[in-house]
Amino acid sequence: xxxxxxxxxxxxxxxxxxxxxxxxxxxxxxxxxxxxxxxxxxxxxxxxxxxxxxxxxxxxxxxxxxxxxxxxxxxxxxxxxxxxxxxxxxxxxxxxxxxxxxxxxxxxxxxxxxxxxxxxxxxxxxxxxxxxxxxxxxxxxxxxxxxxxxxxxxxxxxxxxxxxxxxxxxxxxxxxxxxxxxxxxxxxxxxxxxxxxxxxxxxxxxxxxxxxxxxxxxxxxxxxxxxxxxxxxxxxxxx
Amino acid sequence: xxxxxxxxxxxxxxxxxxxxxxxxxxxxxxxxxxxxxxxxxxxxxxxxxxxxxxxxxxxxxxxxxxxxxxxxxxxxxxxxxxxxxxxxxxxxxxxxxxxxxxxxxxxxxxxxxxxxxxxxxxxxxxxxxxxxxxxxxxxxxxxxxxxxxxxxxxxxxxxxxxxxxxxxxxxxxxxxxxxxxxxxxxxxxxxxxxxxxxxxxxxxxxxxxxxxxxxxxxxxxxxxxxxxxxxxxxxxxxxxxxxxxxxxxxxxxxxxxxxxxxxxxxxxxxxxxxxxxxxxxxxxxxxxxxxxxxxxxxxxxxxxxxxxxxxxxxxxxxxxxxxxxxxxxxxxxxxxxxxxxxxxxxxxxxxxxxxxxxxxxxxxxxxxxxxxxxxxxxxxxxxxxxxxxxxxxxxxxxxxxxxxxxxxxxxxxxxxxxxxxxxxxxxxxxxxxxxxxxxxxxxxxxxxxxxxxxxxxxxxxxxxxxxxxxxxxxxxxxxxx
Lengths: 239, 481
Known about the structure:
Strand content of chain B: under 5%
Mean pLDDT of chain B: 89
Largest sheet of chain B: none
Strand content of chain A: 15-25%
Structural class of chain A: alpha+beta
Structural class of chain B: mainly alpha
Largest interface: A-B, 46 and 44 residues
Radius of gyration of chain B: 24 Å
Shape of chain A: globular
Radius of gyration of chain A: 18 Å
Shape of chain B: globular
Distance between the termini of chain A: 34 Å
Oligomer: heterodimer
Mean pLDDT of chain A: 92
Distance between the termini of chain B: 23 Å
Order of helices and strands of chain A: EHHEEHEEHEEHHEHEE
Largest sheet of chain A: 4 strands, mixed
Number of helices of chain B: 19
């Protein structure tokens, strides 16, 4: 089974935020509006973190796109009281909207701030609802719960899924061809969109894959590695 | 008839419902009703967005109060174990009050956690899909166990008196039969069995209480994502905070029962409870000091920012309120120093503080200029001794009044302690959330009126429960302990 992971080349990233926009459109991320945004309540499955170092005029800025890290030791899964989030068999950290009780313990436990809460009923100003991703996989989680880009109920937690609906389709295609799903069968929406080709997605265990090579490069680092969460998102930094 | 008269003092509140009582109950009902309305119309309908919580302040006043009320429930087990595990019979007359408080505090804690949920309709998922690895489920298990033990304790501690009431007031027979669950045997054998069960329960309850408060701390303390919580000291700190606040609440309730409901409780008993509290407060102070020293000396960047904000920054008023008004002041009041000693202590404090404040002005931000920005500012090395120590000494001279009844003096100290621990709970839960590990913007939190209203409603509900219970069964043991 592939170990899906991501490599983001920070030297290539131009901070254009196309990944952020693509993710919102792909995953039906709720709209917050200026008022709620001012209250720190917008939802970003993919978000651009700005790191400013030094003081003017010797300033160095860096921008870090932040999806869910899909940790191999996920602190969020460790604390969920109702099994509403878990590591699926291929290692992606999934979230069941229909089981979540909205206690926000996983959000408190996530060191990356990758989880978001539906403080209000998700809404979109017209005509945005017409642009909801029609490409919903009929697949449900083994629990029967809703997941991925489906419109979320009020009061539950959500997060980046590595475009799990695309993975489902890729799996079905592979099955039709009588083989297992493998590197290159699908990429996430952010990977597909990035104009600078700074985001790579694939099987971290496949020695022929690009992410395999890049994740083993000398420039590869992961966020808050010292916490032992074993994130599956690598960053190439240095330049 | 003769028997009723001899018991009159203890049974009076059961027999009489005065206009003051009715007015109080109506006021409490109004607050509870209004809060319930606000909860349904605002929070339930519109979502948790009507609170002040946000990213990254995922937990706010509700969780602060959850932690606070779990802690307050400790008083019941302390008094119960004093009476039944350590055989200190004199506390027997307040054991029932303490146990009733423990029970209501636990119920309120459960209510607060439900209020905090984004999906209260899925509360039952905790049982259906409970994941044993989650500290929250540990808490669910230990709270429900503790609740059962508390209820059993309350039942076996009250049963005999219910049987007595049943015989004294035939008109209310059905009520006492229901409360006693139909078990109305008062033969010496049954009474002896009740005592044995009570003793066993008190012994079980002691380790269970340690587990309860530790697990509540571990919900926060086991998380590496929040360096401000991630400390091995948090468990023991919660145990001692619970002991302090729980005892203080028992004192407060006993003073209330004595002064307002006019039940015959000896003043000495309050003095004794106050002495226990005076023993526990310094332990809590020591734990806080140990944590503060470790953090400030090592100055780990992730922790020191939180503590700086807590001690000298935005949350400093809450921190110092907790320390001075919630720990130091009540401790001195409980120790009952003579006015001469207070004055001498104040003089020593001035002598010590003035040079320190003069040499380290940055450690003493001017509070006067914050409170009254227009007034000409005194140098802080004058402000601290002149204004603040003077106020403290006057407050002590008034509050530690040797001629005041224990129920007043100890009651005031207990009230301050309860407030102080509430402030401490706030500072434990909220400030560490505001500092994300990754370079996100700094968090903010200001509770909204909806949160304040709902919290006030829950407080009122707790008081209402206690006050109604005072009419259902005798709060003080009928038999002289």
